[in-house]
Amino acid sequence: MKLTQLNGRRTVVWGLGKEGRAAARAARKAGASDVVAVVDDPPASAVVVAWSDAGLSGIPILSGPTAQTACNAAEVVVLSPGISRYRPEVIELERRGVHVTNGTALFLADQGANTIAITGSKGKSTVTLLTAHLFNALGRDAVAAGNLGTPLLDLLDKSCLVVAEISSYQAALVSSGPHVAVLTSLFPDHLPWHGNVERYYADKFRLFASQGSSRHGLVNGADPIIDALLSNPALANVTTYATNDSEVRIDNGMLIYNDIPTFSLKVSQLPGTHNTINIAAAVAVLARAGINIQAEAERLEAALAGFSPLPHRLEIVKTVNGVTFVDDSLATTPQAAIAACNAFPSQPLTLLVGGLDRGVDYTPLITYLKERATHSAVALVAMGPAGRRIASSLNSLEVCICDDLPEAVHLAASLTSHGVVLFSPAAPSPADYRTYEHRSHAFRISVEGFQRAP
User: pTM value?
Assistant: First the structure.
């Protein structure tokens, strides 16, 4: 469905966050009929104020039975990312003939030819921002948007290239694909929203399944789960990057393009092997967008040197007498925590883990830590239900269990005479913290207050 098809149709926007506000603005501008917003529970006053401040006070907000009545009477329902398309109420709406969509699907139906979409279980934010950064460094106007910031529907009037980070929630209703789609990594995540891992993978793949023959799909061939699923029909026409036979790969600190060493990655501020693969992804996108990689090698290397790591992703907070404290609070899965640990392959490591326990399989992280402990010093500070579950399988390591981050930082400092204290929790934030940024702030405050005697 294109935005123009909302004209004259009774439209409900489900959700009041930034995506919901963008959808309401776009629906009203497209001439949708009787636009209303619905939420599960009566909204807090701050949310209502934000709605009004966005110029949407004329669009009523409904909850409870009146919200359900509005949805049943709608011709189109636009879901915000937090509303699972697999909820029984949503499935019932589709059964009744209501067209269920979301902001990403509406945007790509209109602007897909001018959009690069980046998805993946991890790595998508870095690849999105790096890709936009490299395009801009080469003089091509590009903006990074989507899941990491500006809602796509707020960019409808922009003429620039859109590099969009797309979550699995946003991809789940896509029916018209982008010009270039990228899959950075794949492992089980967000299962409560999707219902099962197969559906989670399938929703990621919608970006590729919906592409026409003139568009491009790029996937990380070095990722074992992606490699195992390349026979999936949705990935039938993709090109891999980061493998030995790929057009774009990394070898001995060099970006290799068409088997020719093209520029050095030693200038990069991005730590870890996983980030060299993220660089390969960004360069592969530029190549698909018509950039002459070899001719632009010097400018690409300079642009890469100027790209800083994202906040809360392997961000060095402080070094005190040989101990470096690193904030990687966005690592909310075991695979992300492993990648973070690998960014410091030879240093003594104290890992801070834990948070909410979503029931994910921590075997990969446990196996990794046991193996690493056979050749280098590893200690563990565990917090919350997830941390305790990880710690219960690591009796062979030096393990401390605590209740909060300030105590965790204190314990980690006492365990580490030199090396790295890495906060890479491998689990979502507990209820004590509003967001991952709030949890990160607590870590950083504790670190900033730490002093080690010389």
Answer: 0.92
